[in-house]
Amino acid sequence: MAMLEISNLGVSFRTPRGTLHAVKDVSFSLEPGRCLGIVGESGSGKSQTMLGMLGLLPQNGTVTGSALFEGEELIGAPRRRLDELRGARMSLVFQDSITGLTPHMRIGDQLAEVLQVHKGFSRKQALAESLAMLEVLRLSEPERRLRQYPHELSGGMRQRVMIAMALLCKPSLLIADEPTTALDVTVQATILSTLGKLKDHAGTAIILITHDLSVVAGVCDEVAVMYGGRIVEHAPVDELFAAPAHPYTKGLFMCTPRIDMPTGGMLPAIPGVPPPLNAMPPGCAFSPRCPEADARCEQVRPEARRIGNRLAACLKVPA
Amino acid sequence: MGGYILKRLLIGVPTLFIIITASFFLMRSAPGGPFDAEVDLDPAVKANLEATYGLDLPVSGQYVRFLGALSHFDFGPSTTYPDRSVGELISDGLPVTLRLGLTAKALAAALGMTAGIVAARNRNGPIDAAVMGAASLGIALPNFVVAPALTLVFGVYLHLLPVAGWGDGSARYWILPVIALALPQIAAIARIMRGAMLEILSADYVRTARAKGMPENRVLWRHVMRAAFLPVMTYLGPAAAAVVTGSVIVEQLFGLPGIGRFFVQGAMNRDYSLVMGIVILYATVLILLNLLVDIAYGWLDPRARVK
Amino acid sequence: MSASSQTVPFTARRQALARFAANRSAVVGLGLLALIALLAILIPILWPHGLEEAGLEHASQPPSLTDFHWFGTDANGRDLFVRVFYGARISLAIGLIATAIALAIGVVWGAVAGWFGGLTDLLMMRFVDVLYAVPLLFLVIVLVTVLGNNVFLIFAAIGAVEWLTMARIVRGQTIAIRNREYIDSARAVDLPTPRILSRYVIPNVIGPVIVYSTLLIPVNIIVESSLSFLGLGVQEPLTSWGLLINQGAPQLDSAPWILAAPATLLAITMLAFNAVGDGLRDALDPQGR
Question: What's B122's domain CATH number?
Fold first, then answer.
């Protein structure tokens, strides 16, 4: 049985201008020790899928469908149960570490409370464990960091504190939302290699949300590409990089600089912008921007079809 | 920290000095003097009276004399209450004003913050609507409207509480004044607290706390509350002035022997030393309160802490 | 989903206007204010009873529709309906004029301090700090006793003490935009400073200023009412809501309408201004609530 089994997950928001469907009909599963990358532009629903699954949507958000984590249904689970799982069995690292830490609490207390609440550690034990975790992540002067406040740390340090926080209880599932976006390349490399070790040695399953295909290539085993709130293509990483099937995925690759290609002039960009959530076309969400689209694409929504090892939702992809 | 407080207190001294000087000359530039109201006063008697109070000197001379007396905490004699010194009047009135003001402030802070938290936690629900509706009304009704209404209901109709006066100073006498003084502030604090709570509840770090499985109560008390106090603190500082000014009206309304009433009478009767004494007192209190607010700010928000 | 909602590109100003228009309590508040202002202009002209038309034979009459004493009469038999709207003229005028004075002083003070920075800023803001240490109602009381009981001087006195927060807001905004590119380019072409301030800086700080002004008007109305209530503000034969409430309070037991009429109108005006101010704030700054 898969560690995580998501089927037909949907996320919607009530707004003054009506209900917006941010995520529609998302399904995938994940085995222990595997890393799934979710890529897509901002607004494609990648983060909302994760927040919906973990019960962290803002008050006007609703989640539907099913998410089985180690056989247990998360959707509709009581807050008390979710609190027991979150931070202990499944952890989340947010993209924005600048505002992601409580400004008026010391780093040490923010780390320690995870172990105090989940494991019943004493504060002293919890601080010692936190210190060890900061050392693993190679944060300089870890004892001093524990006594400092978030604003006294650099962005890279804060991001590593966030990761330490997520790893303290040795979760079986780690969800990392753009964990390296704001960081310089060397810190990025450290963090990615830490994630790789976790996966290989501790058997942790990882979901990595990013818009950076090079990060995906480095760490992930499989990739799901999201557009307009749906997964448009889901494939093993090598297959996807070898031959993207969906026109949107192809477009993404065209916009990514590659070292093995001649750089003749400017990088192309996919023309146009994603449709707003309240004005989705009846057919394929990508059809207005798609070079291959025809009249049928605009009217008929493509279902995801299995082609070999991959899934693609496009009328134009041959079976 | 000690150095910072000392520095702030030292800055307070020139501030106070400027306020004293400005108010002194402002008061003297007002047309009329303390003995002009008594029309039939014999000029000789008037001159005699003015000499007694040092009012025959040129204004600069009066100023020097005033500062000299002030340097050993002598505020001079009152012309409104001829046989009493300003110092005595203040020490009589201060306990009344302080008891009124501090009780009202404590009540306002406790009830206002509770109401704000309750409203925020039930956001957009019927409880929220009820609390915020009441708060809007509380802000819209000034205490000189609320006070007569309270008096009418609890004093005249129900005979539960005395209509006015201080009596023996027991609680029965100051319940209504405290409520009248506190109501607009309860309303203001409730609105501020609710707004702050809603803003912070949607902050990224609150989501982080929830994501790491902190129970809701722990999220509220450890991650939300301290930050939500900040705007309330910012309000409570200057609102100390509102307690002061509000107490002028409430003391007048209920006929309480506090400082506010002396101030209004003093200003109307050109009782220079009485007005000056009270201005100095309030300015000092306000400077100290602002310092307290800044210290509390640093405690609540480490980013605002002085190095 | 209508076609217009996706095709017409909204400008920031139109979006703000749309958000304000969608805020029901703000729109109702604005309507109420317009109605009160209109009645304040018309009623004293059109009403069959005059402001000073007294008659002790019908003193302290309860409200009645038959003889045009809709809000009843006061202790001197004067019609309260006309007096309340006459008082509205003074109270609203004080609210608006005092706020305009506070606005003028505060914006100029804050913009100059923020723009020049350094010692100028330090001295100007120290002065604001000093004034902050004075209870404002006290300052107004002293000013009013100094200046005498002239209505216009009361306007000025209130405005002259209520500009401090305005100056702080404008200073903060000015410092924030002082180093933006468009200001650099204005300086690069050697525009004179007053022109840069009036054409580029002040228009860009005006949003928070408008919001604060809307919320300052009711504060100033209350300050005037408090003064008049204490007998230090508007004097007979003029009248204002504060003075009317003052006259009504002693008779609350026997003739509650004398207090109720001005108090109700005052409360409605407060609620309306606060609703409009909150609506403006949400419309101009949808993120910060």
Answer: 1.10.3720.10
